[in-house]
Amino acid sequence: MNKIKTYKSDAYAAIHETMAGMYDAGVIDKKTMREFDEACLTPVHAFSATDIKALREREEVSQRVFALYMNVSKDSVSQWERGIKKPAGPTLKLLSLVKQKGLSAIT
Amino acid sequence: MNKIKTYKSDAYAAIHETMAGMYDAGVIDKKTMREFDEACLTPVHAFSATDIKALREREEVSQRVFALYMNVSKDSVSQWERGIKKPAGPTLKLLSLVKQKGLSAIT
DNA sequence: TTGCAATATAGGACTTGGTTCTATATATTC
DNA sequence: GAATATATAGAACCAAGTCCTATATTGCAA
Q1: Fold annotation for A49-106
Q2: Mutating which of B28, B94, B98 best tests the A interface, going by the most A Cβ atoms within 10 A?
Q3: Chain region(s) in chain A for CATH 1.10.260.40
């Protein structure tokens, strides 16, 4: 028998529908679908070298200050923007937060 | 990392908006804004294994869900809490955000 | 009872991000 | 000119994070 799921908010339902669409399209598997459905998190997208540079310049800070916000070295930021190193995991999460909410979100 | 000067983080958000507005209005220049940003960042303190476990349990989520928020694998969270791996850099920044503002701050 | 899913511990092997160092270049400011 | 801030460039090192498997426990449903 099918269980009717109820959602805490319209936003949750909206995200669920988005993720369900990704699942139907084969972009994510069923396990990932359950995880997103449960956690109701916004997906963390990738950042290219130019994306990062554009983001930093949008916030109008130097590499060094940007690095202070992210709690990484200034060299790392330079390497991200030149495509030498590609941020992943927690770093992508921080970049996503900055992109969505601005640097003040991670103060 | 360079040493980060300290100011109270809660006061920062409101002041930052004021300063940003002054910058937009041309009252202060970009250099002053950068220096202000640098001076007002809150320090990122270390997290012990038990600190992380206590933080996660305070937020009442499983290791798996906590990992989703941090955008790391569930194995990583398990290893943090057992002292096998010690989070640093961007990961510490995220943990600090969660400790100060709760999991909803990094949704 | 039996079976299944979720949670968490445990450990091994691998990849690569982040750090640190040095050198170079260009503005800008004193 | 000297000094400072910004950014590129490259090399070497370490460990965080990933992925994999195995084990154990709990709770729930058939």
Answers
A1: 434 Repressor (Amino-terminal Domain) (1.10.260)
A2: B94
A3: 49-106
Q: Which fold has domain B49-102?
A: 434 Repressor (Amino-terminal Domain) (1.10.260)
Q: What is the pLDDT of residues B14-71, one digit of tens each?
A: 344 445 545 554 445 544 555 555 556 777 899 999 999 999 999 888 899 899 999 9
Record the pTM. Answer: 0.75
Q: Which pLDDT tens digit goes with each residue over A59-96?
A: 989 999 999 999 999 999 999 999 999 999 999 999 99
Distances in Å between the Cα of B33 and the Cα atoms of A72, B16, B42, B95 are: 20, 9, 16, 26
Task: Measure CB to CB from residue A41 to each of B34, B40, B107 and give the nearest one.
Answer: B107
Would you list the DSSP string of B20-77? HHHHHTTSS-HHHHHHHHHHHPPP-----HHHHHHHHHHTT--HHHHHHHHTS-HHHH
User: What residue ranges of chain B are covered by domains with CATH 1.10.260.40?
Assistant: 49-102
User: Residue B106 CA to nucleotide D5 C1', Å?
Assistant: 33
pLDDT digits (tens, 9 = 90+) for A82-91: 999 999 999 9
